[in-house]
Amino acid sequence: MRWDRLFAEIEQQAADEDLLERDALVADLAEEEDAETSWSDLVGVRTRMRVLGAGVVEGEVLGVRPALVHVRTAGGDVLVASRAVLGVAPPGPRRPPAAEVAQRLGWPSAWRVLRDEAADVVVVLVDGSRVAGRVARVGRDHVELVGESGAAELLAYRGLATVTTRD
User: Fold this and answer.
1) pLDDT per residue over 60-70, tens digit each?
2) What is the largest CA-CA distance in the chain?
């Protein structure tokens, strides 16, 4: 009987050590996953984003892509440049990655839709300035807007903060 009790204690200690090892491994894996997580993976369905040059954009997130976030606000739909996002609250659960094709859709695709709809847009740049007009041409790294006066202006995607449509 003594031996049985001794072996039972040894087996219990081994099982306890296995559980501790497993828990440590799970914690390490969770930390590694967190280290690989982007802020855009944690954008909640309802969000408040701090955007360079544009202030706060608050609303329902309709889509997240590497280059932009589509938000429906009380005033309408807003495209927010990912590189202009300074903060997001509240964070949501981790989003599954978008399909590969969806990952490639960025500013050029969005601008082509706005051009095809002949939408009047207001662009807020990261310096806080605003440009209004219609999309004339879409380039790889820029868009050409034509204002009401007929004057054209090229805007580099890297300078975009938000884009909204005017009614």
Assistant:
1) 988 888 899 99
2) 98
Tell whether omega for the bond before 66 is within 30 degrees of 0, i.e. cis.
Answer: no
Phi, psi of 93 (to 5 degrees): -70, 155
More confident residue, 8 or 106: 106
Q: Specify whether the CB–CB gap between 111 and 143 falls below 8 A.
A: yes
**DSSP E strand stretches across the chain:** 43-51, 55-64, 68-73, 76-81, 85-91, 120-125, 130-138, 142-146, 152-156, 160-166
d(CA 167, CA 164): 10
Model-wide pTM > 0.70: yes
* Continuous H helices in the chain: 2-35, 100-104, 107-116
Tokens of residue 26, six digits: 């799970």
The token pair at 85 is: 């996002």
Distance of alpha carbon 138 from alpha carbon 112, whole angstroms: 7
Task: Give the pairing of strands 130-138 and 142-146.
Answer: antiparallel
